[in-house]
Design brief:
Elements: H1 22-40, H2 54-74, H3 91-96, E1 102-107, E2 110-115, E3 127-136, E4 139-149, E5 155-158, E6 180-182, H4 183-206, H5 214-229, H6 247-267, H7 286-303, H8 308-316, E7 331-335, H9 342-353, E8 357-361, H10 368-372, E9 373-378, E10 381-386, H11 388-393, E11 399-403, H12 410-413, H13 417-420, E12 425-428, E13 431-434, E14 440-445, H14 458-461, E15 464-468, E16 475-477, E17 484-486, H15 489-494, H16 506-517, H17 528-555, H18 569-581, H19 601-610, H20 620-632
Parallel strand pairs: 7-14, 7-15, 8-11, 11-14
Antiparallel strand pairs: 1-2, 3-4, 4-5, 4-6, 9-10, 12-13, 16-17
Helix pairs in contact: 1-2, 4-5, 17-19, 17-20, 18-19
Length: about 625
Amino acid sequence: METQNQDKPEDTLQPEAPPLTPTILKEQREKLINALEKTRLLPEDHISGKGKTKSELLEALQNAMKGVNDKLGEMPKEIDKTDTEYDVATRAEKKMDEAVHYLTVKSAIGITKIPICPPPASVSKWEAVPGEMFVEGGKKWSKVAFEKKSGAGFSETLRPGDEVSFGQTKGERLEVIDNILEGRDELQAFNETLKTLAGLKNLYAELNPDAVDYSEKASKIAEKIELIRTGKANEVIDFSKLKISDPSEYSERIGEIIQTQEYLQEVDEGSNEFVPSIDSHFKLTPFYTEKFAWFAELVNRQLGLGNNSLMERLSESNELPEWEKLSAKGMTVMVGPRGAGKNKLAEHYCSATERPLYRYSCSPDKEERDLTYDVVLQDGEVVKIPSRIITAISTPNSMLELDEVNLLRPAVSKFFNSLLDGDRALFLNDKVIKVAPGVVIVGLMNPADYEGVENLPETIDDRSNVMSFDYPPFRKRDSLTNAEIFTHDEALILKENISALAPFDDESFVKIWDGLFNGKPLDGFVDPEIVTIIKDLKNIISIANRTRETVRAYKTRTGETRMERDLSLRGLIEAAKFYSEKQLWKVDLNKMPDHKTGWNASQYAVAATYLPHVRTYRRGDSDAQALELILAEQVR
Protein backbone atom coordinates (compact mmCIF):
# COMPACT_ATOMS: atom_id res chain seq x y z
CA MET A 1 0.00 0.00 0.00
CA GLU A 2 1.05 3.59 -0.59
CA THR A 3 0.86 4.54 3.10
CA GLN A 4 2.83 1.51 4.29
CA ASN A 5 5.87 2.27 6.49
CA GLN A 6 5.19 6.02 6.50
CA ASP A 7 6.50 6.24 10.04
CA LYS A 8 9.85 4.68 9.17
CA PRO A 9 12.74 7.17 8.78
CA GLU A 10 14.01 5.67 5.54
CA ASP A 11 16.34 7.25 3.04
CA THR A 12 13.44 7.97 0.64
CA LEU A 13 12.94 11.35 2.32
CA GLN A 14 14.70 13.65 -0.13
CA PRO A 15 14.07 17.25 -1.18
CA GLU A 16 11.34 17.45 -3.83
CA ALA A 17 11.88 18.71 -7.33
CA PRO A 18 11.46 22.36 -8.36
CA PRO A 19 9.67 24.75 -8.46
CA LEU A 20 11.06 25.71 -5.08
CA THR A 21 9.87 28.42 -2.70
CA PRO A 22 11.03 29.23 0.85
CA THR A 23 7.78 27.72 2.18
CA ILE A 24 8.28 24.44 0.30
CA LEU A 25 11.93 24.25 1.37
CA LYS A 26 11.00 24.82 5.01
CA GLU A 27 8.38 22.07 4.79
CA GLN A 28 10.99 19.74 3.32
CA ARG A 29 13.42 20.67 6.07
CA GLU A 30 10.77 19.97 8.74
CA LYS A 31 10.23 16.49 7.29
CA LEU A 32 13.97 15.87 7.23
CA ILE A 33 14.25 17.02 10.85
CA ASN A 34 11.57 14.52 11.90
CA ALA A 35 13.28 11.77 9.92
CA LEU A 36 16.64 12.56 11.52
CA GLU A 37 15.16 12.43 15.01
CA LYS A 38 13.48 9.08 14.31
CA THR A 39 16.62 7.65 12.74
CA ARG A 40 18.74 8.59 15.76
CA LEU A 41 16.41 6.48 17.91
CA LEU A 42 16.96 3.35 15.82
CA PRO A 43 19.23 0.59 17.21
CA GLU A 44 22.84 0.73 16.03
CA ASP A 45 22.48 -2.54 14.06
CA HIS A 46 19.38 -1.36 12.16
CA ILE A 47 19.27 -2.24 8.44
CA SER A 48 16.71 -0.48 6.22
CA GLY A 49 14.50 -2.19 3.66
CA LYS A 50 17.03 -1.10 1.01
CA GLY A 51 19.95 -2.56 2.95
CA LYS A 52 21.32 0.69 4.39
CA THR A 53 22.81 0.87 7.88
CA LYS A 54 21.81 3.46 10.48
CA SER A 55 24.96 5.51 9.85
CA GLU A 56 24.32 5.48 6.09
CA LEU A 57 20.75 6.64 6.64
CA LEU A 58 21.95 9.46 8.89
CA GLU A 59 24.55 10.53 6.35
CA ALA A 60 21.98 10.59 3.54
CA LEU A 61 19.53 12.62 5.60
CA GLN A 62 22.22 15.07 6.71
CA ASN A 63 23.32 15.57 3.10
CA ALA A 64 19.71 16.19 2.13
CA MET A 65 19.41 18.68 4.99
CA LYS A 66 22.55 20.48 3.81
CA GLY A 67 21.11 20.68 0.29
CA VAL A 68 17.86 22.20 1.53
CA ASN A 69 19.73 24.68 3.77
CA ASP A 70 21.97 25.70 0.87
CA LYS A 71 18.96 26.34 -1.35
CA LEU A 72 17.29 28.34 1.41
CA GLY A 73 20.45 30.41 1.77
CA GLU A 74 20.24 31.32 -1.92
CA MET A 75 16.65 32.52 -1.56
CA PRO A 76 15.96 36.26 -1.03
CA LYS A 77 15.61 36.78 2.69
CA GLU A 78 13.82 39.56 4.52
CA ILE A 79 16.22 41.11 7.01
CA ASP A 80 14.99 41.31 10.59
CA LYS A 81 15.53 44.94 11.48
CA THR A 82 15.99 44.10 15.14
CA ASP A 83 19.12 42.09 14.33
CA THR A 84 22.03 44.54 14.34
CA GLU A 85 25.62 43.29 14.55
CA TYR A 86 24.60 39.89 15.84
CA ASP A 87 23.09 36.63 14.62
CA VAL A 88 20.98 34.90 17.25
CA ALA A 89 18.09 32.67 16.19
CA THR A 90 14.65 33.32 17.63
CA ARG A 91 12.63 30.43 18.99
CA ALA A 92 10.71 30.07 15.70
CA GLU A 93 13.89 30.08 13.60
CA LYS A 94 15.55 27.69 15.99
CA LYS A 95 12.72 25.16 15.73
CA MET A 96 13.23 25.00 11.97
CA ASP A 97 16.94 24.38 12.55
CA GLU A 98 16.34 21.87 15.35
CA ALA A 99 18.36 19.14 13.62
CA VAL A 100 21.42 21.41 13.76
CA HIS A 101 21.08 21.75 17.56
CA TYR A 102 23.20 24.93 17.79
CA LEU A 103 22.77 28.67 18.00
CA THR A 104 25.48 30.81 16.46
CA VAL A 105 26.40 34.14 18.05
CA LYS A 106 28.82 36.49 16.27
CA SER A 107 30.65 39.03 18.41
CA ALA A 108 34.05 40.63 18.94
CA ILE A 109 35.29 37.50 20.74
CA GLY A 110 34.55 35.44 17.64
CA ILE A 111 31.83 32.94 16.82
CA THR A 112 30.22 31.20 19.78
CA LYS A 113 28.31 27.96 19.30
CA ILE A 114 25.59 27.23 21.88
CA PRO A 115 23.98 23.78 22.11
CA ILE A 116 20.18 23.76 22.08
CA CYS A 117 18.73 21.36 24.61
CA PRO A 118 16.11 18.82 23.54
CA PRO A 119 13.33 18.21 26.08
CA PRO A 120 13.97 15.30 28.46
CA ALA A 121 12.57 11.95 27.43
CA SER A 122 10.45 11.76 30.57
CA VAL A 123 9.35 14.36 33.09
CA SER A 124 8.08 13.70 36.58
CA LYS A 125 4.41 14.70 36.70
CA TRP A 126 1.56 14.67 39.18
CA GLU A 127 -0.20 11.33 39.15
CA ALA A 128 -3.37 10.15 40.89
CA VAL A 129 -2.47 7.27 43.23
CA PRO A 130 -4.56 5.22 45.68
CA GLY A 131 -3.75 5.74 49.33
CA GLU A 132 -3.74 3.23 52.17
CA MET A 133 -6.78 1.01 52.62
CA PHE A 134 -8.94 1.52 55.71
CA VAL A 135 -12.00 -0.24 57.11
CA GLU A 136 -15.19 1.58 58.04
CA GLY A 137 -18.75 0.28 58.36
CA GLY A 138 -17.59 -3.20 57.56
CA LYS A 139 -16.26 -2.10 54.15
CA LYS A 140 -12.77 -1.43 52.82
CA TRP A 141 -12.04 2.04 51.44
CA SER A 142 -9.14 3.84 49.81
CA LYS A 143 -8.56 7.60 49.41
CA VAL A 144 -6.98 8.80 46.18
CA ALA A 145 -4.12 11.31 46.54
CA PHE A 146 -1.88 13.06 44.03
CA GLU A 147 1.85 12.36 44.01
CA LYS A 148 4.87 13.60 42.10
CA LYS A 149 8.21 11.85 42.35
CA SER A 150 11.45 13.68 41.62
CA GLY A 151 14.68 12.25 40.31
CA ALA A 152 16.23 13.03 43.67
CA GLY A 153 14.19 10.37 45.42
CA PHE A 154 11.84 12.89 47.03
CA SER A 155 8.09 12.74 46.50
CA GLU A 156 5.34 15.29 47.03
CA THR A 157 1.81 14.36 47.96
CA LEU A 158 -1.35 16.46 47.81
CA ARG A 159 -4.88 15.55 48.85
CA PRO A 160 -8.09 17.41 48.01
CA GLY A 161 -8.31 20.38 50.36
CA ASP A 162 -4.53 20.71 50.82
CA GLU A 163 -2.80 24.01 50.18
CA VAL A 164 -0.94 24.24 46.86
CA SER A 165 2.68 25.40 47.36
CA PHE A 166 3.70 26.15 43.76
CA GLY A 167 2.75 27.93 40.55
CA GLN A 168 0.26 30.75 40.06
CA THR A 169 -2.20 29.12 42.48
CA LYS A 170 0.31 29.04 45.34
CA GLY A 171 -1.51 29.46 48.66
CA GLU A 172 -4.87 28.28 47.32
CA ARG A 173 -6.40 25.01 48.41
CA LEU A 174 -6.93 22.09 46.07
CA GLU A 175 -10.62 21.71 45.25
CA VAL A 176 -12.41 19.14 47.41
CA ILE A 177 -13.72 16.21 45.35
CA ASP A 178 -15.15 12.77 46.03
CA ASN A 179 -11.92 10.80 45.88
CA ILE A 180 -12.83 7.73 47.93
CA LEU A 181 -12.79 4.30 46.29
CA GLU A 182 -14.75 1.41 47.74
CA GLY A 183 -13.12 -2.00 47.95
CA ARG A 184 -10.76 -3.78 45.62
CA ASP A 185 -13.19 -3.72 42.67
CA GLU A 186 -13.29 0.08 42.47
CA LEU A 187 -9.57 0.22 43.05
CA GLN A 188 -8.98 -2.25 40.20
CA ALA A 189 -11.31 -0.26 37.92
CA PHE A 190 -9.48 2.96 38.86
CA ASN A 191 -6.12 1.48 37.85
CA GLU A 192 -7.65 0.12 34.63
CA THR A 193 -9.03 3.56 33.77
CA LEU A 194 -5.63 5.24 34.25
CA LYS A 195 -3.97 2.51 32.19
CA THR A 196 -6.51 2.95 29.37
CA LEU A 197 -6.14 6.74 29.40
CA ALA A 198 -2.34 6.53 29.24
CA GLY A 199 -2.58 4.05 26.35
CA LEU A 200 -4.90 6.34 24.40
CA LYS A 201 -2.59 9.32 24.90
CA ASN A 202 0.39 7.28 23.71
CA LEU A 203 -1.54 6.19 20.60
CA TYR A 204 -2.43 9.81 19.87
CA ALA A 205 1.20 10.94 20.26
CA GLU A 206 2.46 8.19 17.94
CA LEU A 207 0.11 9.06 15.04
CA ASN A 208 1.85 10.14 11.85
CA PRO A 209 0.51 13.62 10.87
CA ASP A 210 1.44 12.90 7.23
CA ALA A 211 -0.71 9.77 7.04
CA VAL A 212 -3.84 9.92 4.89
CA ASP A 213 -6.10 8.72 7.71
CA TYR A 214 -4.49 10.90 10.41
CA SER A 215 -7.52 13.17 11.00
CA GLU A 216 -9.94 10.26 11.28
CA LYS A 217 -7.77 8.32 13.75
CA ALA A 218 -6.89 11.40 15.79
CA SER A 219 -10.56 12.39 16.14
CA LYS A 220 -11.60 8.94 17.35
CA ILE A 221 -8.81 8.73 19.94
CA ALA A 222 -9.37 12.31 21.14
CA GLU A 223 -13.09 11.58 21.58
CA LYS A 224 -12.34 8.61 23.86
CA ILE A 225 -9.83 10.63 25.91
CA GLU A 226 -12.39 13.41 26.38
CA LEU A 227 -15.09 10.94 27.47
CA ILE A 228 -12.84 9.52 30.20
CA ARG A 229 -11.67 12.90 31.54
CA THR A 230 -15.20 14.37 31.59
CA GLY A 231 -16.74 11.61 33.67
CA LYS A 232 -18.03 9.25 30.96
CA ALA A 233 -15.39 6.52 31.15
CA ASN A 234 -18.21 3.93 31.17
CA GLU A 235 -18.72 4.71 27.44
CA VAL A 236 -15.15 3.62 26.76
CA ILE A 237 -14.51 0.92 29.39
CA ASP A 238 -16.86 -1.98 30.24
CA PHE A 239 -17.06 -1.54 34.01
CA SER A 240 -19.61 -4.36 34.36
CA LYS A 241 -16.76 -6.84 33.89
CA LEU A 242 -14.98 -5.08 36.76
CA LYS A 243 -17.97 -5.54 39.11
CA ILE A 244 -18.86 -1.82 39.37
CA SER A 245 -22.51 -1.56 40.47
CA ASP A 246 -23.16 1.96 39.13
CA PRO A 247 -20.75 2.62 36.20
CA SER A 248 -22.19 6.09 35.44
CA GLU A 249 -21.75 7.44 39.00
CA TYR A 250 -18.35 5.79 39.29
CA SER A 251 -17.23 7.37 35.98
CA GLU A 252 -18.15 10.84 37.29
CA ARG A 253 -15.94 10.34 40.36
CA ILE A 254 -13.05 9.10 38.22
CA GLY A 255 -13.48 12.10 35.90
CA GLU A 256 -13.11 14.52 38.85
CA ILE A 257 -9.92 12.78 39.95
CA ILE A 258 -8.43 12.87 36.43
CA GLN A 259 -9.30 16.55 35.94
CA THR A 260 -7.67 17.41 39.29
CA GLN A 261 -4.54 15.54 38.19
CA GLU A 262 -4.47 17.48 34.91
CA TYR A 263 -4.97 20.75 36.81
CA LEU A 264 -1.91 20.05 38.98
CA GLN A 265 0.17 19.17 35.92
CA GLU A 266 -0.88 22.45 34.30
CA VAL A 267 -0.16 24.82 37.21
CA ASP A 268 3.06 23.14 38.38
CA GLU A 269 5.97 24.79 36.57
CA GLY A 270 8.17 21.84 37.47
CA SER A 271 5.91 19.43 35.62
CA ASN A 272 5.74 21.72 32.61
CA GLU A 273 9.51 22.22 32.37
CA PHE A 274 9.47 25.95 32.92
CA VAL A 275 11.19 27.32 29.83
CA PRO A 276 10.82 31.12 29.73
CA SER A 277 9.32 32.52 26.56
CA ILE A 278 11.31 34.95 24.43
CA ASP A 279 10.89 38.46 25.88
CA SER A 280 10.11 40.74 22.95
CA HIS A 281 11.33 43.75 24.96
CA PHE A 282 14.80 42.26 25.55
CA LYS A 283 17.10 43.36 22.78
CA LEU A 284 20.55 42.00 22.03
CA THR A 285 22.26 45.28 21.22
CA PRO A 286 26.00 45.15 20.40
CA PHE A 287 26.89 45.52 24.10
CA TYR A 288 24.50 42.81 25.28
CA THR A 289 25.56 40.54 22.42
CA GLU A 290 29.14 40.69 23.72
CA LYS A 291 27.93 39.79 27.22
CA PHE A 292 25.68 37.03 25.88
CA ALA A 293 28.52 35.50 23.89
CA TRP A 294 30.92 35.63 26.85
CA PHE A 295 28.30 34.14 29.17
CA ALA A 296 27.71 31.32 26.66
CA GLU A 297 31.48 30.66 26.45
CA LEU A 298 31.69 30.28 30.25
CA VAL A 299 28.63 28.02 30.35
CA ASN A 300 30.16 25.84 27.63
CA ARG A 301 33.32 25.64 29.69
CA GLN A 302 31.27 24.68 32.78
CA LEU A 303 29.60 21.88 30.83
CA GLY A 304 32.93 20.54 29.61
CA LEU A 305 32.53 21.99 26.11
CA GLY A 306 35.41 24.44 26.31
CA ASN A 307 37.30 22.54 23.64
CA ASN A 308 36.65 24.60 20.49
CA SER A 309 37.60 21.78 18.14
CA LEU A 310 35.07 19.49 19.85
CA MET A 311 32.34 22.13 19.47
CA GLU A 312 33.23 22.62 15.83
CA ARG A 313 33.07 18.89 15.13
CA LEU A 314 29.76 18.45 16.94
CA SER A 315 28.08 21.41 15.24
CA GLU A 316 29.33 20.49 11.77
CA SER A 317 28.04 16.92 12.11
CA ASN A 318 24.72 17.99 13.67
CA GLU A 319 25.46 16.06 16.86
CA LEU A 320 24.39 16.94 20.37
CA PRO A 321 26.98 16.61 23.14
CA GLU A 322 26.83 13.44 25.19
CA TRP A 323 26.32 15.26 28.47
CA GLU A 324 27.06 12.25 30.69
CA LYS A 325 30.52 11.81 29.14
CA LEU A 326 31.58 15.45 29.56
CA SER A 327 33.66 16.54 32.55
CA ALA A 328 31.17 19.16 33.77
CA LYS A 329 32.07 21.12 36.88
CA GLY A 330 32.02 24.58 38.44
CA MET A 331 29.62 27.49 38.24
CA THR A 332 29.28 30.59 36.06
CA VAL A 333 29.03 33.80 38.10
CA MET A 334 27.88 37.19 36.80
CA VAL A 335 28.95 40.19 38.90
CA GLY A 336 27.26 43.55 38.36
CA PRO A 337 24.97 46.22 39.83
CA ARG A 338 21.25 45.67 40.25
CA GLY A 339 19.12 46.44 37.22
CA ALA A 340 21.96 46.02 34.70
CA GLY A 341 20.30 42.98 33.12
CA LYS A 342 21.97 39.93 34.71
CA ASN A 343 18.68 38.09 35.26
CA LYS A 344 17.43 39.04 31.81
CA LEU A 345 20.55 37.72 30.10
CA ALA A 346 20.32 34.36 31.91
CA GLU A 347 16.60 34.18 31.12
CA HIS A 348 17.24 34.93 27.45
CA TYR A 349 19.87 32.18 27.34
CA CYS A 350 17.27 29.71 28.66
CA SER A 351 14.65 30.96 26.19
CA ALA A 352 16.99 30.61 23.22
CA THR A 353 18.24 27.14 24.23
CA GLU A 354 14.95 25.85 25.70
CA ARG A 355 16.34 25.23 29.16
CA PRO A 356 13.97 25.08 32.15
CA LEU A 357 14.93 27.94 34.51
CA TYR A 358 14.81 27.60 38.30
CA ARG A 359 15.63 30.69 40.39
CA TYR A 360 16.62 30.44 44.04
CA SER A 361 17.11 33.54 46.21
CA CYS A 362 20.02 33.24 48.63
CA SER A 363 20.19 35.09 51.96
CA PRO A 364 22.30 35.09 55.15
CA ASP A 365 19.58 33.32 57.15
CA LYS A 366 19.55 30.23 54.91
CA GLU A 367 20.55 26.98 56.58
CA GLU A 368 21.73 23.88 54.75
CA ARG A 369 18.35 22.22 55.30
CA ASP A 370 16.68 25.17 53.52
CA LEU A 371 18.70 24.36 50.41
CA THR A 372 17.43 20.79 50.25
CA TYR A 373 13.75 20.92 51.13
CA ASP A 374 10.83 23.17 52.01
CA VAL A 375 8.41 22.43 54.81
CA VAL A 376 4.67 22.77 54.22
CA LEU A 377 1.60 21.88 56.26
CA GLN A 378 -0.69 19.41 54.52
CA ASP A 379 -3.79 17.90 56.13
CA GLY A 380 -2.47 18.83 59.56
CA GLU A 381 0.88 17.14 58.91
CA VAL A 382 4.31 18.67 58.36
CA VAL A 383 5.53 17.51 54.95
CA LYS A 384 8.94 18.01 53.34
CA ILE A 385 9.06 18.79 49.63
CA PRO A 386 12.24 19.17 47.54
CA SER A 387 13.58 22.71 47.21
CA ARG A 388 13.92 24.45 43.85
CA ILE A 389 17.63 23.60 44.04
CA ILE A 390 16.92 19.87 44.21
CA THR A 391 14.23 20.14 41.52
CA ALA A 392 16.60 22.07 39.25
CA ILE A 393 19.59 19.73 39.49
CA SER A 394 17.26 16.75 38.98
CA THR A 395 15.80 18.20 35.76
CA PRO A 396 17.86 17.42 32.63
CA ASN A 397 19.27 20.47 30.80
CA SER A 398 17.85 22.93 33.34
CA MET A 399 19.51 26.09 34.68
CA LEU A 400 19.78 26.66 38.43
CA GLU A 401 20.15 30.39 39.03
CA LEU A 402 21.38 31.33 42.52
CA ASP A 403 20.45 34.99 43.00
CA GLU A 404 22.70 36.95 45.41
CA VAL A 405 24.81 33.82 45.84
CA ASN A 406 27.39 35.81 47.84
CA LEU A 407 24.88 36.26 50.70
CA LEU A 408 25.18 32.62 51.78
CA ARG A 409 27.23 32.17 54.93
CA PRO A 410 30.57 30.35 54.29
CA ALA A 411 29.52 27.38 56.42
CA VAL A 412 26.34 26.98 54.37
CA SER A 413 27.99 27.57 51.00
CA LYS A 414 30.12 24.44 51.54
CA PHE A 415 26.91 22.57 50.73
CA PHE A 416 27.73 23.27 47.07
CA ASN A 417 31.31 21.94 47.08
CA SER A 418 30.54 18.47 45.76
CA LEU A 419 27.92 19.90 43.42
CA LEU A 420 30.49 22.14 41.73
CA ASP A 421 33.36 19.63 41.75
CA GLY A 422 33.81 16.75 39.35
CA ASP A 423 31.46 14.63 41.51
CA ARG A 424 28.57 16.81 40.30
CA ALA A 425 26.43 15.43 43.12
CA LEU A 426 24.97 16.27 46.51
CA PHE A 427 25.57 13.96 49.46
CA LEU A 428 22.64 14.19 51.87
CA ASN A 429 23.03 11.78 54.78
CA ASP A 430 22.36 8.36 53.20
CA LYS A 431 21.23 9.81 49.87
CA VAL A 432 23.33 10.74 46.83
CA ILE A 433 21.70 13.08 44.32
CA LYS A 434 23.56 13.10 41.01
CA VAL A 435 23.14 16.17 38.85
CA ALA A 436 21.02 15.39 35.79
CA PRO A 437 22.74 15.56 32.36
CA GLY A 438 23.27 19.03 30.91
CA VAL A 439 22.39 21.01 34.06
CA VAL A 440 23.87 24.53 34.22
CA ILE A 441 24.53 26.37 37.50
CA VAL A 442 24.70 30.18 37.48
CA GLY A 443 25.32 32.61 40.34
CA LEU A 444 24.46 36.32 40.37
CA MET A 445 25.84 38.95 42.73
CA ASN A 446 26.48 42.65 43.17
CA PRO A 447 30.12 43.84 43.14
CA ALA A 448 31.85 42.99 46.43
CA ASP A 449 33.63 46.36 46.49
CA TYR A 450 30.28 47.99 47.21
CA GLU A 451 29.95 48.90 50.87
CA GLY A 452 27.86 46.34 52.73
CA VAL A 453 28.09 43.68 50.02
CA GLU A 454 29.41 40.30 51.17
CA ASN A 455 32.34 38.55 49.50
CA LEU A 456 31.65 35.55 47.33
CA PRO A 457 32.39 32.58 49.63
CA GLU A 458 35.84 31.25 48.83
CA THR A 459 34.58 27.70 48.35
CA ILE A 460 32.34 28.93 45.52
CA ASP A 461 34.80 31.47 44.11
CA ASP A 462 37.49 28.80 43.65
CA ARG A 463 35.07 26.64 41.69
CA SER A 464 33.61 29.36 39.47
CA ASN A 465 34.25 31.18 36.20
CA VAL A 466 33.39 34.84 36.81
CA MET A 467 32.40 37.58 34.38
CA SER A 468 31.65 41.26 35.03
CA PHE A 469 28.31 42.68 33.96
CA ASP A 470 27.82 46.42 34.09
CA TYR A 471 25.56 48.92 32.37
CA PRO A 472 26.40 49.65 28.73
CA PRO A 473 29.01 52.45 28.57
CA PHE A 474 27.56 55.86 27.68
CA ARG A 475 30.77 56.90 25.93
CA LYS A 476 33.58 54.90 24.40
CA ARG A 477 36.48 55.28 21.96
CA ASP A 478 36.02 54.47 18.28
CA SER A 479 38.34 51.56 17.48
CA LEU A 480 39.37 53.13 14.15
CA THR A 481 39.57 56.89 14.82
CA ASN A 482 40.06 56.84 18.61
CA ALA A 483 37.44 59.59 18.74
CA GLU A 484 34.99 59.59 21.64
CA ILE A 485 31.52 58.45 20.57
CA PHE A 486 28.15 58.12 22.29
CA THR A 487 26.95 54.52 22.29
CA HIS A 488 23.42 53.64 21.20
CA ASP A 489 22.85 50.42 23.21
CA GLU A 490 20.40 51.75 25.77
CA ALA A 491 18.88 54.14 23.23
CA LEU A 492 17.92 51.15 21.05
CA ILE A 493 16.12 49.61 24.01
CA LEU A 494 14.39 52.83 25.10
CA LYS A 495 13.18 53.80 21.63
CA GLU A 496 10.79 50.83 21.70
CA ASN A 497 8.90 52.64 24.47
CA ILE A 498 8.50 55.97 22.65
CA SER A 499 5.54 55.95 20.27
CA ALA A 500 6.90 58.70 18.00
CA LEU A 501 9.96 56.54 17.20
CA ALA A 502 7.91 53.44 16.23
CA PRO A 503 8.33 54.02 12.46
CA PHE A 504 12.13 53.77 12.73
CA ASP A 505 13.84 50.39 12.61
CA ASP A 506 17.10 49.91 14.49
CA GLU A 507 19.31 50.53 11.48
CA SER A 508 17.63 53.83 10.59
CA PHE A 509 17.65 54.94 14.21
CA VAL A 510 21.38 54.24 14.61
CA LYS A 511 22.15 56.27 11.47
CA ILE A 512 20.28 59.27 12.88
CA TRP A 513 21.94 58.82 16.28
CA ASP A 514 25.42 58.70 14.77
CA GLY A 515 24.62 61.70 12.58
CA LEU A 516 23.44 63.79 15.53
CA PHE A 517 26.07 62.81 18.11
CA ASN A 518 29.00 60.99 16.50
CA GLY A 519 29.93 63.19 13.54
CA LYS A 520 28.65 60.91 10.80
CA PRO A 521 26.67 62.30 7.83
CA LEU A 522 22.89 62.22 8.13
CA ASP A 523 21.22 60.25 5.37
CA GLY A 524 18.51 62.63 4.12
CA PHE A 525 16.10 64.95 5.91
CA VAL A 526 15.08 64.24 9.52
CA ASP A 527 11.97 65.83 10.97
CA PRO A 528 12.96 68.45 13.61
CA GLU A 529 10.50 66.91 16.07
CA ILE A 530 12.27 63.53 15.76
CA VAL A 531 15.61 65.29 16.29
CA THR A 532 14.26 66.83 19.50
CA ILE A 533 12.97 63.46 20.76
CA ILE A 534 16.26 61.65 20.10
CA LYS A 535 18.22 64.45 21.79
CA ASP A 536 15.91 64.18 24.80
CA LEU A 537 16.46 60.43 24.79
CA LYS A 538 20.21 60.94 24.89
CA ASN A 539 19.78 63.37 27.79
CA ILE A 540 17.76 60.81 29.77
CA ILE A 541 20.55 58.25 29.33
CA SER A 542 23.13 60.89 30.26
CA ILE A 543 21.31 61.59 33.53
CA ALA A 544 21.12 57.87 34.26
CA ASN A 545 24.84 57.57 33.62
CA ARG A 546 25.52 60.34 36.16
CA THR A 547 23.41 58.59 38.81
CA ARG A 548 25.36 55.38 38.22
CA GLU A 549 28.69 57.14 38.54
CA THR A 550 27.51 58.79 41.75
CA VAL A 551 26.27 55.53 43.28
CA ARG A 552 29.44 53.68 42.28
CA ALA A 553 31.62 56.42 43.81
CA TYR A 554 29.63 56.39 47.04
CA LYS A 555 29.54 52.60 47.40
CA THR A 556 33.25 52.25 46.67
CA ARG A 557 34.01 55.17 49.04
CA THR A 558 35.56 57.32 46.31
CA GLY A 559 32.82 59.96 46.31
CA GLU A 560 31.22 62.11 48.99
CA THR A 561 27.69 62.47 47.60
CA ARG A 562 25.49 59.87 49.24
CA MET A 563 23.32 57.99 46.75
CA GLU A 564 22.07 54.41 47.31
CA ARG A 565 20.09 53.66 44.16
CA ASP A 566 20.95 54.68 40.63
CA LEU A 567 18.71 54.85 37.58
CA SER A 568 18.73 51.23 36.40
CA LEU A 569 17.68 50.04 32.96
CA ARG A 570 14.23 49.34 34.39
CA GLY A 571 14.10 52.91 35.67
CA LEU A 572 15.20 54.23 32.29
CA ILE A 573 12.38 52.38 30.57
CA GLU A 574 9.85 53.88 32.99
CA ALA A 575 11.22 57.38 32.29
CA ALA A 576 10.98 56.76 28.52
CA LYS A 577 7.40 55.52 28.82
CA PHE A 578 6.43 58.59 30.87
CA TYR A 579 8.13 60.88 28.34
CA SER A 580 6.17 59.22 25.53
CA GLU A 581 2.79 59.07 27.28
CA LYS A 582 2.92 62.75 28.25
CA GLN A 583 4.46 63.77 24.88
CA LEU A 584 6.94 65.92 26.78
CA TRP A 585 8.71 67.05 23.62
CA LYS A 586 5.82 69.37 22.78
CA VAL A 587 3.95 70.22 26.00
CA ASP A 588 4.38 73.29 28.19
CA LEU A 589 6.53 71.85 30.97
CA ASN A 590 5.75 74.77 33.28
CA LYS A 591 2.15 73.52 33.50
CA MET A 592 3.17 69.98 34.45
CA PRO A 593 2.78 68.95 38.13
CA ASP A 594 5.90 69.17 40.33
CA HIS A 595 7.95 70.65 37.52
CA LYS A 596 10.82 72.85 38.69
CA THR A 597 12.01 75.93 36.86
CA GLY A 598 14.86 75.13 34.52
CA TRP A 599 14.13 71.45 34.09
CA ASN A 600 13.99 70.31 30.48
CA ALA A 601 11.82 67.44 29.23
CA SER A 602 14.47 64.80 29.95
CA GLN A 603 15.10 66.00 33.48
CA TYR A 604 11.40 66.18 34.23
CA ALA A 605 10.80 62.62 32.92
CA VAL A 606 13.53 61.25 35.19
CA ALA A 607 12.42 63.24 38.25
CA ALA A 608 8.76 62.32 37.80
CA THR A 609 9.48 58.58 37.68
CA TYR A 610 12.46 58.33 40.07
CA LEU A 611 11.55 60.60 42.99
CA PRO A 612 8.32 58.81 44.05
CA HIS A 613 10.43 55.71 44.79
CA VAL A 614 12.63 57.47 47.35
CA ARG A 615 9.75 57.39 49.82
CA THR A 616 9.74 53.57 49.81
CA TYR A 617 13.09 53.06 51.56
CA ARG A 618 15.30 54.55 54.23
CA ARG A 619 17.82 57.19 53.20
CA GLY A 620 15.58 57.98 50.27
CA ASP A 621 15.90 61.68 51.09
CA SER A 622 19.63 61.48 50.42
CA ASP A 623 18.96 59.93 47.01
CA ALA A 624 16.43 62.65 46.21
CA GLN A 625 18.95 65.36 47.09
CA ALA A 626 21.63 63.64 44.99
CA LEU A 627 19.34 63.44 41.96
CA GLU A 628 18.29 67.08 42.26
CA LEU A 629 21.96 68.02 42.42
CA ILE A 630 22.60 66.08 39.20
CA LEU A 631 19.60 67.70 37.50
CA ALA A 632 20.74 71.14 38.60
CA GLU A 633 23.88 70.67 36.53
CA GLN A 634 21.70 70.97 33.39
CA VAL A 635 22.99 67.75 31.88
CA ARG A 636 22.94 67.88 28.09
